[in-house]
Cytochrome P450 71A1-like (Salvia divinorum), 469 residues
Amino acid sequence: NLPPLVPGLPFIGNLHQLSAAPLLHIYLSHLSKLHGPLFRLNLGSNPVIVISSAKLAEEVLKHQDSAFCSRPELVPQRRLSYNFADMAFAPYGSHWREVRRIAATHLLSPPKVKSFRAVREDEVARMVARIARCASSSPPRAVNLSEAAMGLTTTLICRIGFGRRYEEQGTELRRFQELLTELRQLLTAFFVSDYFPALSWVDRATGLMKRLDCAFEKLDSFYQELIDEHLRTEGVDDDDEDILGMQIKLELNSNKPTNWDRVKALLMDLFLGGTDSSAASIVWIMTALMKAPHIMKKVQTEIRNAVGNKAKVDEDDLPTLPYLKAVINETFRLYTPVPMLVPRETTQKCVLGGYEIQPKTTVYVNVWAITRDPECWKTSPEEFLPERFYGSDMDVKGKDFGLIPFGSGRRICPGMFMGLANVELAVANLLFSFDWEVAQGTELDTDALAGLIMHKKNPLLLLPKQYKL
Ligand code: HEM
């Protein structure tokens, strides 16, 4: 009694259909309309199920979380995570539990995130100052907000992650960004060996394996340089310590042999998790507001009234901005930055929605489809309506299964507090400091790029006008 199977071809199953889809989450959402909220695919030799409703997501991420909380072991993930020494790609088990505990209690805990407040406020102020220069030049210059958001989150992760501030446009920042781009591309690349283990020679013949080895070596040298640099500098207080510094202290103080692979693999998670998703969120919030000028006006009025005659929004102001919160929640719903959760894998045989699911089945949770699930979102699910959150206790933190931009359950995003802190402060200041117009000669579209993170396809080009008190 297996879930309905989408018809495919012998041997390759549904691989050809998925690889031809421009945006996987939209294609799978379309399939769910034909086959229901739970259906099955075969990707080569791998069985996959796809979840597209809030009710089934609650079953998978809450009631049966322990059966659905592993990760499929894919070739690039294995290599780049030092044989799953990280957290994001590690299969469920004692190693994952240990690193997750370290992240929750030390590296990404709410107090640790709070301790980086000054860094966040400083970097957001620098971004605002750069935009102010564009606004005051004659004639005023348009700002590429997609670039500004990516620049902000990359700089933040460098300072918070390993205590370095790279010069804008400098060679070191470029090197870091190039490494990140290669890392992301390889993690979403199609390795034949993942779907047809007997054909692993194909990945060697096409040069993909060599590219993976080469990227691994470069990343490894980069992590090693950062570690060596930290080992040379001593005596930083715990409160001022960056995340890599904390990790090194924890490793050196543990009574087990130092596991440098684990330190490096967790750095990779930090770089991957900490940059794109927050940048994409900032861009989608600004895009959604540009498309709804009356909502833009309302949220700006709320922020400007609350901040009064101060020069900027600081973190103490954020809890006093419920409408901004509603705008952010609604953007996470309609333009969810991670349209499908990081793939899960079943740890055992289980029953879901009356169907039998086999162990080692890959599980795709289609967040994009769930945020439009008509059973959960009864009023105009395709419309941008922040009011639906105003006065509601619904939030993005994993208890409401129609709105799970950070996932839920054991594997919920451990960087959620940091991601939200970055996004809220950046957006509040962009809205407080400037009025915005679409740059001349450009159109405001909502086309998305394919990938693990849903970026806006065309850069968001806006003309800023400095707000005067
Ligand atoms: C707006 C910002 C962010 C969004 C929308 C986001 C979203 C997500 C999602 C959807 C998952 C998958 C959860 C699941 O499988 O159920 C995830 C996992 C993860 N995220 Fe984030 N994330 C954000 C920021 C961050 C930040 C800032 C970090 C680190 C500093 C981070 C680190 C991670 C890690 C390590 C995992 C894997 C957790 C595990 O497998 O145990 N994320 N994130």
About this structure: The chain has one domain: 15-466. The first strand starts at residue 38 and ends at 43. The beta strands are 38-43, 46-51, 143-144, 344-345, 350-352, 355-357, 362-365, 434-438, 461-466.
